[in-house]
Prior knowledge:
Number of strands: 0
Distance between the termini: 23 Å
Number of helices: 12
Bound molecules: 2-acetamido-2-deoxy-beta-D-glucopyranose
CATH topology of the largest domain: Serine Threonine Protein Phosphatase 5, Tetratricopeptide repeat
CATH superfamily of the largest domain: Tetratricopeptide repeat domain
Structural class: mainly alpha
Strand content: under 5%
Helix content: over 70%
Amino acid sequence: MASRNILGAAAAAAVVVLLAxxxxxxxxxxxxxxxxxxxxxxxxxxxxxAHPSSFEAxxxxxxxxxxxxxxxxxxxxxxxxxxxxxxxxxxxxxxxEARAAVLSNLAALLLAxxxxxxxxQVMNSTLELARELGMEHSELYVGTLFNLAKAEQQLGRREAxxxxxxxxxxxxxxxxxxxxxxAWAALKQFSPExxxxxxxxxxxxxxxxxxxxxxxxxxxxxAAWRALRQRWGWLDGLSAVDRSWMYWGAFHAYQQEGxxx
Length: 261
Ligand SMILES: *[C@@H]1O[C@H](CO)[C@@H](O)[C@H](O)[C@H]1NC(C)=O
């Protein structure tokens, strides 16, 4: 159950990355109703036909269909058209950063649509392009790494998937919180260092949720709390849902290794 949720969350996250990274036309799709989105897709088809070399039209058609596939699934019937529009947008992208963002969305679409091999190949191309652009520490890069881990897992290459998740954990701290916490939830085996890191992060989340009154602490405990907060305070910016993936990770670590809290 957990992995299906994580996968859905990853696909949704990629849409957000696109909007941030490629400055795509609004979409504002999260709030829009399905009928409105369908109507919008119809208009965008006409726009694409009238302006075949418009990056914005191709991208907006792709992301509208992607959003529909996500919010009103119909067995992936929209995926081929959405994928073709993303590919077209990738060709037309005015900058390489925008192309990388479009490719990462294409990959998320294909993964959610069950075209896992193809998704993995697009993810590898996205990562290669992102490395050329020096974007190894971007949300786009680690989000794509995370999705590649899911793809490798689905292709039955469990070792490769675990190695990618460890890469995500290394790179995402302070940069891409949702990928960081979801990587914990997807990890299957925990090294002693990883257990320590996860345990410390959870300790921070628990104490922070309860609220800490520094004045009631001894000087040494206050200093220890400040050090903990300095390392982990960045988690405060995450949504409750994204933070909760850490608890999934802890639950798995506990289940699999008899880890006592
Ligand atoms: C991505 O590239 C790596 C390194 O070349 C390769 O081992 C892996 O199989 C590729 N993954 C997919 C899903 O194509």
